[in-house]
Write a structure and sequence with these properties.
- The chain has one domain.
- About 70% of the residues lie in helices and about 0% in strands.
- The protein contains 7 helices and no strands.
- It is globular, with a radius of gyration of 15 Å.
């Protein structure tokens, strides 16, 4: 995979799509992008759930445009350096999650697991849909799986991870 041109990190569309540089990580750029998602999540976790949900919808829509434009500019569908989808995917995983570092770590681990593993229909979305929509939807599907498991853990183990 070709290196990302340095000028992309200064571009107002490409910089966010590349996670403000996290996507340029030589190893595990998706994980680095998800870490950016964690940093963004920390102050947002206190928002009312309705505001948080509205923000997710806006960030997802923005991501379709950002990721599509950056993929076209790089001439690679879903270049590993494009990590806005991981950022929004992690934020979607954490919607309605309990507060606390244990939950953040569990959400992080679950999201990375499903984003890498890509069980059905995630792999299908990844292969069949192009452009920014395809880039964003496969991570949203991974977030849905992660969210479901996170909520199950919350129901079963709420007391043990709350600290």
């Amino acid at each position: 995979m070709e290196a990302i041109p340095r000028k992309f990190l200064l571009h107002p569309v490409h910089a966010p799509a590349l996670g403000f540089g996290a996507g340029c990580s030589p190893r595990a750029p998706g994980t680095a992008g998800t870490l950016v998602g964690v940093l963004i999540y920390l102050p947002l976790q206190w928002l009312p759930w309705q505001v948080y949900a509205g923000m997710l919808v806006l960030l997802f829509g923005l991501g379709i445009w950002l990721c599509g434009a950056t993929a076209r500019a790089l001439r690679v569908h879903d270049h590993p350096g494009i990590v806005w989808d991981e950022i929004v995917g992690f934020l979607a995983t954490m919607w309605l999650a309990p507060t606390g570092w244990g939950w953040v770590l569990l959400g992080f681990g679950l999201f990375r697991l499903f984003d890498i593993w890509k069980p059905w229909p995630i792999r299908l979305l990844d292969r069949r849909l192009g452009g920014g929509t395809g880039i964003m939807l496969d991570d949203l599907a991974a977030a849905v799986y992660s969210w479901i498991f996170l909520q199950i853990f919350h129901i079963l183990y709420a007391v043990s991870l709350s600290s």
